Amino acid sequence: MVEVLIVEDDPMVAELNKKYLQKLTGFNLAATVTNGEQALHFIHDNHIDLLLLDVFMPKLNGLDLLKYIRISYPKIDIIMVTAACNTNDIQTALRLGVIDYIVKPFTFERFRTALISYQERIRLLSSAEILNQNQLDDRIFTKNFNTTNRLPKGIDAQTLQSVRDVIVNYQQDFSMSDIVELIPLSRISVKKYLDYLEELGEIESHLTYLPIGRPVKRYIYQK
């Protein structure tokens, strides 16, 4: 579960960020704060994976907070969600390592794309010690903000997430038949999604040999 802190002084935008975040699986809203000073106090006392960060805020603005976090909390990832669209602010944020930059006003689809891309990125980086160029290009350094377009032909983003949601709850290995019982998809379709997740390194497979009949391919989720 990704622990998220929203840093936003506009209550309407903060509520919108919260509403959008709650539509996505795999993310937990740890808190919402209204300025950089409050954010620092919260980060000091709590584990946070991701900040949704505004720029224009009282007491300590987003860019100054970003500079401090990069020094003191380098493992925290940051997505800017802000009305600051001048090139100086954007360049400063990029040089300080933000992973995405969303300009207000924004749509749910743009918000979702940023969060799902981040989710795929951390899954990939935590599931493998070595990455090839295709994996880097497809999941880390993509030039296309549309996550749906980056998926292989025949792989739907929503269905892929549904399959993920099922397999992460398994405490032990599972077979394709186990997944078919829980998702309204054909065996061929389920196999296609499992093969894709195995290619990404999110699951691993092995053969289980039975006394009678063919061996059964079983999978295990790579937590």
Primary descriptors:
223 residues, alpha/beta, Rossmann fold, Arc Repressor Mutant, subunit A, 5-stranded parallel beta sheet, 3-stranded antiparallel beta sheet, 47% helix, 18% strand, elongated, transcription regulation
Short description:
InterPro entries: 2C-system_Tx_regulators (IPR051271), CheY-like_superfamily (IPR011006), Sig_transdc_resp-reg_cit/mal (IPR024187), Sig_transdc_resp-reg_receiver (IPR001789). The chain is of the alpha/beta class and 223 residues long. 47% of the residues lie in helices and 18% in strands.
Q: Mind explaining what this structure looks like?
A:
With 223 residues, the protein is α/β, with parallel strands linked by helices. The protein folds into two domains: 2-122, Response regulator (Rossmann fold, 3-Layer(aba) Sandwich), CATH 3.40.50; 151-221, Arc Repressor Mutant, subunit A, CATH 1.10.10.10. It is 47% helix and 18% strand. The protein is built from ten helices and eight strands. It has a five-stranded parallel beta sheet with strand order 2-1-3-4-5, sandwiched between helices. Strands 6-8-7 form a three-stranded antiparallel beta sheet. Helix 2 (36-45) runs parallel beside helix 3 (62-72). The radius of gyration is 20 Å and the shape is elongated. Pfam families: Response_reg. The modification 4-aspartylphosphate is found at residue 54. One of its GO terms (molecular function) is DNA-binding transcription factor activity.
